[in-house]
Known about the structure:
With 138 residues, this protein is an all-alpha fold.
Amino acid sequence: MALVPCQVLHAAILLSYCSILCNYKAIDMPAHQTYGGSWKFLTFIDLVIQAVFFGICVLTDLSSLLTRGNDSQEQERQLKKLISLRDWMMAVLAFPVGVFVVTMFWSIYIYDRELVYPKLLDNFIPAWLNHGMVSKVM
C-alpha cells in the first residue's frame, strides 16, 4: 500500500490551502468585522471551495487505498459515489469559479489596483498571502 505521487500531491495541496486559510483568518482586518465578514470576498469563497475539493480528493485517495483488493460490492459502490462527487465538484465549482476569480482579479488589478486590492490592504495582507489566495487555484 505505497502512496503514489498523486495522493501525496493531493494531501500537500490540501495542507497548503488550510495553512493559507488559517493565516487569512488570523489577520485582524477591518473588513472582517463588517457585514458578511470575509465571506463577501470571492477570493475567500474560492479558497474554501478549493480546500473542500482537495479534502474530497484526499478522502477519495484514502478510500481507494483502503478498499484496494477488497471484493465488497458496497464499498465499491460508495467509492464510485465519492469519485462522482469529486468529479462533479471539479467540473461545476472548483474549476469554473477558480478560473473566473484568477482571470477577473488580475485583469482588474492590472487595470486599476484600487478597485480590487487597495494599497491599504498591504498593511494587513502580506503579498505572499494575496498571491497564494488568488493565483494558487490556477
